[in-house]
Amino acid sequence: MKAIIAKSLLKSYPFTEYRNYITTLFKEGKATGKEQSEALVHYTELNEARMNRLEKTILVTDDYVQKLRGLQKEYIWLVISEGWCGDSAQIVPVIYKMAEVSENIDLKMVFRDENDELMNLFLTNGTRSIPKLIVLDKNTLTVLGEFGPRPQAAKQLILDYKAQHGVVDDKGKTALHMWYLHDKGLSTQKEIMELMMAVE
Predict the structure, then answer these.
(1) Mean per-residue pLDDT for 81-86?
(2) Taking the CB of residue 58, how many other CB atoms lie within 10 A of it?
(3) N or C, where is the chain less crowded by C-beta within 10 Å?
(4) Domain assignment of residue 128, given as a range
């Protein structure tokens, strides 16, 4: 596992480079990842707007800022993502804002489709669901915990919708993004902080 993680870290991007890469591809009419389609480019366009908004509006709560600044150990937050993923667009800016608060967190972004081996280590119910935050000990690359692909309440919303309608259609996706809008990143912050307090 550590060899796979080390190899993935060599292919990782700082957050700003990750964002710039997505934007550059989008301007060329492309999406990140192996598959290319009009739909994925369209999702990328929506996500660019979402991420631009969230990067300006998301606030880390004062309590979490204190706790993040008080972290004693050094961590790598390794995030598996893609530019077309709606959940990533809602969650990754929150992760970025939290990482920015602490000198002891080094945020690294990797693209799922460029890191098959890594993704296969962190499947969700057998699926390659993203985003995934992997918390690593910076010195040993030991996996200390993981978060994703969604906060618990968002996971439940999708499970309930699928149970009622059989599929997650556009209406279901809209409901999910409305949940993210009202939540303002607080559930993501809460669950990640619970993870960090457990590993400290």
Answers:
(1) 97
(2) 19
(3) N
(4) 2-149+188-199
